[in-house]
């Protein structure tokens, strides 16, 4: 049954036996090695993609540069109309694409659909934005002068994305970049290449139907080496990179070295503070979904629970009993709560983390382990685990991309919990569970959480596209999606116009010839 469902989805998404990347319409010049994509759900081969060579990359860049020259001249609301049509196509393809996301990446079907919904939402947002790329006007200190600022299209945007959000992150970037008049070259994760081909196929239809230059949307496939071509390329003014802190550190330095801009969305180490005034039912649901959703492979996954000592045992018992109810298995079967990890390498890292937490002095509360047997043939299914630990442990300081939750105890006031929450290198998402107004407001104040996302009475994971998304410190500092995140996709220009007679210099400086 699963096989038929997937076959139908692949057909709807125009996925062939061997797929190619490159710019839309130019589907005939991928000359690299073949990349095979296996599903973590059942371990089966889904399809093959021809990767890009450096020569292919050059052709893509030519096509992108050519497209930019034309695309920037199209009025922004007209570019918005293109994005509106893309959103419509996504609505039609939501089921098929959602299924492919679930099957190739391993997240639950609901989350697969959710990712496509996020793409649709950001398209809607971008359509409105296409009439609101506002600059400011300001009063000049000189008589007969007018001053204003405006935003111009930037150029080619390079997008490097991670496996865990194989389609939404691309759309967060492209939908905004396109209304801003930029063209995009996408290097998706080598672990989810078919999701990328599917997105590119959908966008290709829009480009064709509107007779637009094909280089607006380009796809290059391969591993980090093809990513390096992007980061080193002076023709690319903005690199938007989502992935590990390890990757971001390299990318940031390379791009800064050539004075490019980078938008970095890197790893998290997200915590929920549970105070004596917390609603325990809400806490347990928020924490369990946050820790085991997407099998702990969200950048916003809850990795640490910082619990007040007075309620520690109560929370601990409730968590252990909630974990007993978790069903692990095929994520396309909606009865299951937890699907597989992306691959066996991720399973290894999970095993290592569990060993390390014990070696560093922690205590396992809910046993982990890899699952074998019927339904677990891919070797990627693991049991969500809970360990009692200390924030200072090296493994707790580190982001393990798997369902391992650390329980940390605090005593005294909420300030102590906030200090623990902030005492990690990453700064993506954070939350507090409390009905105490003072605690909640302190947590959100300048002396509170140091993360890019701080929530009250909801967990750390899951975000809406309307807000700016991203984090501080080793999370990279970038902001994507809603609010004014669009500004990074444009270049700002300040204009002064003299409509008077004679030359007046600023600061009253006199200069006579
Ligand atoms: P990864 O860093 O291994 O790979 C991400 C992408 O970077 C891939 O496309 C990869 O090919 C590319 N890449 C790797 N090294 C590169 C280099 N030197 N130059 C250019 N490109 C390079 O990450 P992953 O395992 O795919 O994803 C998981 C990580 O992503 C986690 O750390 C997670 O927290 C993070 N993430 C962050 C966000 C966010 O918004 N902050 C969102 C999703 C994922």
Automatic annotation (TrEMBL):
Please report the stretch or stretches of sequence annotated as the Aldehyde dehydrogenase domain: 33-494
Family annotation (InterPro entries):
Ald_DH/histidinol_DH (IPR016161), Ald_DH_C (IPR016163), Ald_DH_CS_GLU (IPR029510), Ald_DH_N (IPR016162), Aldehyde_DH_dom (IPR015590), ALDH7A1-like (IPR044638)
Which Pfam families does the UniProt entry name for this protein?
Aldedh
Keyword vocabulary terms for this entry? NAD, Oxidoreductase
Fetch the SUPFAM superfamilies from UniProt.
ALDH-like
Active site per database record: 265
EC top class, as a word: oxidoreductase
Q: Note the superkingdom of the native organism.
A: Bacteria
Q: What is its EC number?
A: 1.2.1.3
CDD domains (UniProt xref): ALDH_F7_AASADH
- Subunit comment: Homotetramer.
**Family per record:** Belongs to the aldehyde dehydrogenase family.
> Under what name is this protein listed?
aldehyde dehydrogenase (NAD(+))
Species lineage, top-down? Bacteria, Pseudomonadati, Bacteroidota, Flavobacteriia, Flavobacteriales
């Amino acid at each position: 049954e699963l096989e038929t469902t997937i076959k139908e989805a692949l057909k709807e998404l125009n996925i062939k036996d061997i797929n190619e990347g490159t710019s839309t319409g130019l589907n005939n010049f991928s000359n690299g090695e073949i990349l095979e994509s296996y599903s973590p759900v059942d371990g089966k081969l889904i399809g093959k993609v021809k990767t890009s060579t450096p020569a292919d990359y050059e052709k893509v860049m030519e096509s992108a540069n050519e497209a930019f020259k034309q695309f920037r001249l199209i009025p922004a609301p007209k570019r918005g109309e293109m994005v509106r049509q893309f959103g419509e196509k996504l609505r039609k393809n939501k089921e098929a694409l959602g299924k492919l996301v679930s099957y190739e990446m391993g997240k639950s079907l609901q989350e697969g659909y959710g990712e496509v919904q996020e793409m649709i939402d950001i398209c809607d947002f971008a359509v409105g934005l296409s009439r609101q790329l506002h600059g400011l006007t300001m009063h000049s200190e000189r008589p007969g002068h007018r001053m204003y600022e405006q935003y111009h299209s930037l150029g080619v945007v390079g997008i490097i994305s991670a496996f865990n959000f194989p389609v939404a992150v691309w759309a967060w970037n492209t939908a905004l970049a396109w209304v801003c008049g930029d063209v995009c070259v996408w290097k998706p994760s080598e672990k989810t290449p078919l999701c990328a081909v599917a997105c590119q196929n959908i966008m290709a239809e829009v480009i064709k139907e509107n007779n637009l230059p094909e280089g607006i949307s380009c796809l290059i496939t391969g591993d980090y080496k093809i990513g390096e071509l992007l980061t080193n390329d002076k023709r690319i003014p903005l690199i938007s990179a989502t992935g590990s802190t390890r990757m971001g550190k390299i990318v940031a330095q390379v791009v800064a070295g050539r004075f490019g801009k980078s938008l970095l969305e890197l790893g998290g180490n997200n915590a929920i503070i549970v105070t004596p005034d917390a609603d325990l039912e809400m806490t347990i649901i928020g924490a369990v979904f946050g820790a085991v959703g997407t099998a702990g492979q969200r950048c916003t996954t809850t990795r640490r629970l910082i619990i007040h000592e007075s309620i520690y045992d109560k929370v601990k018992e409730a968590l252990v009993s909630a974990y007993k109810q978790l069903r692990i298995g095929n994520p396309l079967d909606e009865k299951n709560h937890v699907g597989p990890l992306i691959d066996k390498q991720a399973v290894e890292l999970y095993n290592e983390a569990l060993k390390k937490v014990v070696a560093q002095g922690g205590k396992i509360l809910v046993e982990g382990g890899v699952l074998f047997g019927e339904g677990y043939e891919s070797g990627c299914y693991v049991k969500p685990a809970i360990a009692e630990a200390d924030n200072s442990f090296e493994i707790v300081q580190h982001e393990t991309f798997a369902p391992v939750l650390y329980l940390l105890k605090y005593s005294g006031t909420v300030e102590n919990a906030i200090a623990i929450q902030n005492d990690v290198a990453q700064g993506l998402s954070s939350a507090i569970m409390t009905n105490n107004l003072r605690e909640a407001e302190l947590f959100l104040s300048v002396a509170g959480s140091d993360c890019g996302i701080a929530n009250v009475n909801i967990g750390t994971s899951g975000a809406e596209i309307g807000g700016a998304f991203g984090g501080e410190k080793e999370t990279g500092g970038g902001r994507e999606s809603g609010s004014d995140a669009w500004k990074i996709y444009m270049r700002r220009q300040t204009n002064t116009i003299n409509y008077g007679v004679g030359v007046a210099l600023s600061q009253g400086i006199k200069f006579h010839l």
